[in-house]
Amino acid sequence: MLIPSLASFGPLDLTGAIATWPPMSFVLGLVAAATVVAIRANTSGGDERGAGLLGARRSAVRRRYAGEHIALAVAGVVIALGFVLEFLFRGYIWDGSGASWWRVATPLVVALVGVVTALVLVRTRGSGAPERPVSPPVRRSWVSFSSPVALSAVTVAALALAGTTVAAGLASSPDDAGDWLWLVIPIPNAADVDPLRVVFYGWVYGVPALVGLVLLVVAAWRALDRNAARSFLRPETVAIERAARRRTAGGVVWLTTGACLLALAAGWRLIGNAGSTTTLVIDGPGTSTSYDVAWRYAELASIAGATAPIVEIIALCLLLVVGGSLVPRADHASATAPASPGPGSSGTDVGYAR
């Protein structure tokens, strides 16, 4: 019965479900992201109150940045939902013929589309000549509106994905069709027995992933650079525009990080599945022979496979938090009310960076 089965669903059952059924990672990532978005929606907004900025002008400034924010948010949601749909497609619809070469590269490609769309919107709708020049002019770079923590995270994620992809590709072997998706494991002390061949994170998965990773990193860098370089509209809008640009930069960086981590988790699952094979059984007439399978990196592969669900949850949480930027924030309700400068304030914020 359903109720007794749910009542007996303990921590070990949950751990097993997460390890073997990726949609469970989506559920946990969704819960974590919803918590983060709810907290942010009720606590953020102070930085977006431009001093002396009337509601109509504030709304116009927000519209200037709305397109790029929505593009990044939609990309985050699409990647997260695509993660579940891709698993269901491979598990219940696809006939399994050939290699699912898109498995690792898909999050990177969708993130690339989202970042490029945001970049186009930054260069068109989000840029233009200032209504009134802001002084003093300060040169801004692509790191100006991103936190060091976020930049460090995306760097680690990208390097981990690249390193894993290259190492696994070098360890892979081609199948009869020439697709590099096998891991060939020799049988110790049994030269007359063919090596064991298991599906692995080979070049058939790795090449599309590397291409997507390079293009995504370049697009993210260009988006961050253009986001920082464009002019502010006028001195009174600097505060709200600076907050909007931090939001754009954060969306680009966390979308890229989430896509890299989700691709990394997919590669680690493939590696973990290959490393979990420890025995080869050959059935003969009336008897069967068992051989121990030894791969020198089997322990590392097992660790990667065990860590993959955790990486998936973190990635999905990041992507859905980016998607949560579609949720109106608490300060939007008061957008029509003029903001007054605080005591001791000059009334104009001309800060540029973080």
Write down the secondary-structure element order. Answer: HHHHHHEEEHHEEH
What share of residues is helical? 55-70%
- The total strand number stands at 5
> Which runs of at least 5 residues are low in confidence (pLDDT < 50)?
1-7, 46-53, 330-354
Distance between the termini: 56 Å
Largest sheet: 3 strands, antiparallel
Total of DSSP H or I helical runs spanning 4+ residues: 9
Percent strand = 5-15%
The strands making up the biggest β-sheet line up spatially as: 1-2-3
Count of all domains: 1
Determine the mean pLDDT: 79
Structure class: mainly alpha
What overall form do the CA principal axes indicate? elongated
Rg (C-alpha, Å): 25 Å
Biased composition (Low complexity): 333-348
Region (Disordered): 333-354
Keywords: Membrane, Transmembrane, Transmembrane helix
Transmembrane segments: 20-39, 70-89, 101-122, 149-171, 203-224, 252-271, 300-322
How would you characterize the overall build of this protein?
Helix 6 (148-171) packs parallel to helix 8 (238-275). It is elongated, with a radius of gyration of 25 Å. The strands form two sheets. It has a three-stranded antiparallel β-sheet. The longest helix is centred in the first third of the chain and has 39 residues, at 55-93. By secondary structure, the protein is mainly α. It has one domain (18-327). It has nine helices and five strands, in the order H-H-H-H-H-H-E-E-E-H-H-E-E-H. Mean pLDDT is 79; it is low at 1-7, 46-53 and 330-354.
List keywords for this structure.
disordered N terminus; transmembrane; transmembrane helix; 7% strand; 9 helices; mainly alpha; 60% helix; single chain; membrane; 354 residues; 3-stranded antiparallel sheet
